[in-house]
Amino acid sequence: MNVFGVGPTELFVVLIVILVLFGPDRLPELAKKIGGASRELRDNLNSLNEQMNTALETSMELDKARMTPPAGDSETIAPASENSILPQAALAELPATTSEDSSTATPDPNPAQTTVPPAAQD
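Below the sequence we write its predicted structure tokens.
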């Protein structure tokens, strides 16, 4: 049985060394201090965990409030702002599409019989 990679023999050696270093009179006092420190650490970690959970819940509530549209305004579309994905300046630079655009033009039914413009015949 290995606990944290320490077998029973190593654990026994460590306990003997502690007993020799501190003596039997100071051993209960040392155990009491170690127990108090571990309890204080556990309490501090629990407090930190509660604070983090409270902060996370508050943040999630704020995000949810930002994402829900106001009542009655669900049909309106907000105008583009400076922080929008495609600002108005970029929209003005886009080329205007016409009915003669190649994407909307009707394809030639006989592509083999295309005529060459007179300027290109030279």
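The mean pLDDT is 76.
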